[in-house]
Structure formats: structure tokens, C-alpha cells
Amino acid sequence: MTSALPGPAHPGYFTEHTVAELGAALRAGQLTPRALVEHALLGATRLAPLFNAFVTIDAFAARAAADRAAAELASGLDRGPLHGIPVAVKDIVATAGLRTTMGARHFASHVPARDAECVRRLRAAGAIVIGKTTTHEFAFGPTGDRSANGAARNPYRPEHMSGGSSAGSAVAVAAGIVPLALGTDTGGSVRIPAALCGIVGLRPSQGAVPTDGVFPLAPSLDTVGPMARTAADCGLLWHALTCAEERRTSPARGSLRVGWLTPDAVSPTEPAVGSAARARLDELGAEVVAKVLDAELPHAETMGRTYSTVQAWEAHAVHAERLAVAADQYDDEVLARLRAGGRISPGEYQDARAAQRTARQAVTALLGDYDLLALPTVGVVAPPVGARSVWVGDKRLHVRDALLGLTVPWSVTGLPALSIPAGQVGGLPVGLQLVAPAGGEDLLLWVAEQADACHPPNGAAQSTR
Asked: What are the angstrom distances between the C-alpha of 204 and each of 246, 308, 406, 413?
């Protein structure tokens, strides 16, 4: 078994405990939901100046929910594995009675009257929302450092980006403030921060989780996804979001055919990052994988343009009225990107949608030859906060392109993709991305659990200080 790598600086309580362990302790009377909430609230407060993971913390409601959870468990009402477990929710997801700002000055005082459907499902499963996490303004960016409440910061090195747009959710989990968090993923917004912060993050198949009550970025691409330190914990959150009680049958051991996509053929990638991701895949071994074969991604050269056109056109449509009356309240970078979306013609958008359908058909056909595809999640380690260009070998890329290059193909095609930790490069986490056919989330999570078994999550007791 590979020895654990150094964990995040200043690790919180939940770096040392899985959800299953916490649930067992709750049901044995060794812990209470209130104690877990207090750990989460303490971590959120203690680490706020370092990482800026949270926009709003709801201590009063969280404590009240914890007391209700304790009473229910004592009475014999058990809502399942998440009953009494603290969670954090991205700040574009509506929470009844709890401020939801979208990371924007426009919504600084906005308090929804109703929960988003995904939050309703978590509460029905007994999870306890402790607060709302930092998001890139209106979720329109992969860096996580453009928000009305400031930049979220990487828990391994606070001077570096967390990735975005589900920035604070990734940081809160990686730092051990909470064991679980909810994010959204349009072009990589769960997977990018999961990779850069060293946790597990799932973008599900398009439409698998309702987006009702989630502020839209690009409605045809938006998804809601779970984030956790381990694959097993991610699976528990996933099944709560889909109201599924049991996982489908696991594949026979040693039966999977995996297509390895050479990352540079998709987007420029640092060699050390690509090597770390491939090594993580190879660790699975013959008990899980029958063969790893080189594969080629069809339409790789056009996927980025297709994604950018669809996303930008739809994002501008969402914001058109607001741009007309309150443009001065946007972050300058977000404003420029929204205005660029307004210059895309309806014909260009329709052409991009047609290209999107063609790409989906081609990749679906490719997956007829493989059970999974694999490649790094992000081609670089976390850049410094505020950086807007990075060097990848001899190529200078806009930071947005460097972060999104390996994630957008699966957004374009609407397929499920999972980022799992793949070690560290220069002391910063990198991720391995696994892609399955539509509806293949449980297969992805099963493979990730096998990866956890051979290489546990980063050790919590160690520090990068």
C-alpha cells in the first residue's frame, strides 16, 4: 500500500473520519449530531481567515437541525447514512431562509423562500446544512477567485487557487470543515476544484439530478454534483441526491477495459501531472482493470470552442436584463465574458449545438469499445490566486483554458465524469478523471472505491507547514 501523502495545512476534524464511521458512532451513542455540528462550526470559524470557504454560516439553524436529528434517531426514526451529518452547500443553490448570494453584489441580501430540490433531498435524508460556500461570481469561472466575498484559497497552499466555480465546497471538504459538500458543474466546476484540492468530485450525467432552485449558468450544461474526501462518502451523497437506496451490481473484478486518452492530444498538460494521473490508474491493477489501451478522443480539437459558444450564449441570455440595468455591479472579468457572449449570433449558437450532438454521438460510440475513459482532470497544478496565464511546457495559456481543457469534453457530451486524487506534484494535489457512459455514475464510484483501497486519501495528521 502506498504511504499517505501530506494532507492540507491546519486539518479540521472531518479529515480523520468517514461518513460511515461517523454514522456508526452516532448510532452507538458515542457521538451526537450536535457534537458534529459544533466541530463543523468551529472549523468554519477557525479556518475562515485562511481559506475563505464560506459566505454564510447558519449556526442557529444547524444546531436546531442537529437537535431534531438526535431526537429522531433516539425515537427510532433513521433517515439513512446522512442522518445527523453536516454538509455545506454552494452559494448558487437556494436554501430556504438562508442567504444565497451567487457570489455577486446583485444578490448580497437575497434570502430564498424555498430550498432547491437537491437541498430538499439532502434534508429529507437527515443531512444538516451548516452554511453556504464561496463560488466564483455567478459560477462563471474555473478559478474561484472572483467573488463578492473574495477568493477561496487552496487548503494546501493558501496563496494558490482552489479552482472553481465550486470553490468553497472543495475547500471546506479538503480542509476537514465538513465531510460532504454540494457543488455544481457546468464545464468542470466540481471536478476542477476537486482535483486542485485533492478530493473526490462527481459531475453526473446531464439531467440526473434536478437543477430546480439552482441559479443557472448555462442551463443545457448545468449539473449538480457531490464532493467528498473519499469515494464511499461521495457515493452516499450521490445516492441521497438521486433518492437511490442501493448501488447497482458491481462489475466482475478484473473485467474493465479502460481507454487512456493522451492528455496533450486533448489539452496541453504538464508532464508530471499526466504521469501522476496515469500512475494512479495503473495502481488499480489486474484485480480491477483487464486492460488499459490507448484511445483517441474524437472531435478533441473542436470541443473547447463548442463548449465556449454554448456556455457563453446561454449565460448571456440568463443575464441580459441584469446587464442592462446593473452592469456596474459585476466583477470586471465576469462582465467582459458576459458581454462577449452577447456577441454570439443565434446561428453560431445553433451550429455549436449541432456540433455538440455530433460529439456526443462520436464519444458514445467510442465508449462502446471501453467501459471507462481516463485522463488527468486538470493539466496543471493550482496556479497562484489572481494568475491569468500559466506556462505549460513552452506554451503560455490563459488560466481558464488551462483549467478547463480536460473537463469540457464531458460537459459537451453530457457524460458522467469523476475526479479522484492522483497524488501531488510539487506539494499540490492533482486529479485523475474517469468517464463513463451515460448513467454510469455507480461504476465510476465503484472504481474510485477500489482506488481508495489501494491508496488512501491524503493523511490528515500531517501538515504542509
From this structure: 17, 20, 16, 12
Biggest distance spanned by C-alpha atoms of the chain: 64
> Per-residue pLDDT tens for 370-387?
999 999 999 999 999 999
Q: Are 37 and 130 in contact (CB under 8 A)?
A: yes
**Is the Cα torsion angle 359, 360, 363, 365 positive or negative in sign?**
negative
Give CATH for domain 15-300+353-454.
3.90.1300.10
Phi–psi pair at 300, nearest 5 degrees? -60, -35
Quickly list H helices, 76-175: 117-124, 167-174
Apex 308 CA angle, 299 and 218, nearest 5: 115
How far is 6 from 464, CA to CA, in rounded Å? 6
pLDDT tens digits along 62-79: 999 999 999 999 999 999
- Per residue in 272-328, pLDDT tens? 999 999 999 999 988 899 999 999 999 999 999 999 999 999 999 999 999 999 999
Whether 20 and 228 have beta carbons less than 8 Å apart is answered as no
Which residue has 474526501 as its cell numbers?
229
Classify the phi-psi angles of 430: left when phi > 0, otherwise alpha if psi is within -120 to 50, otherwise beta: beta
> Strand pairing of 86-90 and 128-133?
parallel
395's enclosing H/E stretch is strand 395-398
pLDDT the model gives residue 462 = 32
Q: Which of these, 24, 129, 123, lies nearest to 81 by C-alpha position?
A: 24
CA proximity to 406, closest of 261, 247, 252: 261
Which residues participate in catalysis according to the annotation?
A: 90, 165, 189
